[in-house]
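In full, the data:

***
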Amino acid sequence: MFFLNRVNVLLLSALPLALITGPALPDIIISISSIIFIIITIKEKELKYYKNNYFLFFLLFCIYLVINSLFSKNYLLSLESSLFYIRFGIFSLSIWHCIENNSKFKSYFFNIFFLTYLFLIFDGFYQFYNGVNIFGYAYNNVRLTGPIGEHYVLGSYLARLYPIL
C-alpha cells in the first residue's frame, strides 16, 4: 500500500500542472486517483471516508442524477455525463486521505501549484511582449494562449485558480 499511496500523492500533486494541458489529462488523473483510493481503502479497511455525511449526500445526489438521466429522451447521452460523476466525490476523499496520511502532501501540492502558476504568468508576459510564447506558439493579438498552443487556457487558469493559491 505504501507504493499506491506514493503514486496517489504524485498524481494529485501533478494535477495543477496537468490542468494547463486541457481536459483529458486532468480527467485521467482524477479517475486513476479515485481508483487507487478505492483500492487503498478497501485493502486497509478505512471505511471512515465513505461514512462521511457529505459524501453520503453526494452519493444520493449522484443517484438522483442517474435516475434523472434514465428518464430523459436521449438517456445514453445523458448517462454518459452523469454516471461517472461519482469520481469527483471519490477524488475529494482521495485528497482528504492524502492530507491525513502524508505530511508532505500539502507542501508538494503547493510547490507544484505555485511554480506552475508563476510559469504561466511568465509565459503570458513573454508571449504578450514578444509575440510568441516560450514554446514558439504565436500570439494572435486577441487572446494569450497557454504553453500548449491552441488551447486558450491561460486566463481561465489564472482567474479560477488564484483564490485557491
Remarks:
- The chain has a mean pLDDT of 87.
